[in-house]
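$ fold --in a.seq
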Amino acid sequence: NVQERSVNVGLQKLKEASEFVEKLKIQLKEQEVVVRAEEKKTSALLDKVMIEKGKADKKAEVVNGQKSDCLAEAAKINAEKAEAQVELDKALPFLRDAEAACNSIAKKDIVEIKANRKPMDIIKLTFDGLQILMNKKVI
């Protein structure tokens, strides 16, 4: 009797477990459908991301090429700037000397030159240079 009851309880448990397994199989099939649908969405999204990544990589190549060109141009400009600075440094003392000479001209010097009706060519060239330095029209 005890044995029979134990067997019956065991069979009942097996039956319940079997029913539970069947329910789980149904839920598993339902979940498989959902997983497949999500897998398709994920795959499509991954394809889209890969296409966009390819576009971004191509754009990065173009940008890197432009960057290289810009860096080369900047180096060239800096070299030209340094060269121009050297030339400017050489010319500045002459400019300062010329400015000092212009500032040393007195009114009596101008009156004397105006009185000279036929100035020598060197005087004409000097005054033309002054006109240029003062941004005035050369006569």
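$ fold --in b.seq
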Amino acid sequence: ATSGLRRAVGLASSSVQWGPWGEVGMAAEESISVRMQASGFGLITMTEAAPALAASLGAAGPAVQMLLLVDWSRFLGLLPVVPKALSAFAPSPVRPSMVAASTACKDNDASPLFQTALSLDSVFEIVKAVTG
């Protein structure tokens, strides 16, 4: 909230909401990192965090940003019902024309996670569209 207020009056400010880190912090403990990954959450590395931090310092981006790595198929698959607010992240049925493109992307993707970058503003837009 503070970053949004500062930006509204022309002052510099950025707030970064970090997901779990794999090399430092609470999620670095093996028992916690294993549980987080089994739940579909990826662990942020220094290599991933550095460009995200640099991007957050720019004045052009949103006041509040988030870096959270999520394997949506795994995370949502653990839920008995996909909440309406997260339905945009649910895997869609695969059409035959999508299989070749999906395979090509996976072959070139070094990360096992399906990652989607969203600003907090985008999340608010999704929630507003779902809840009215």
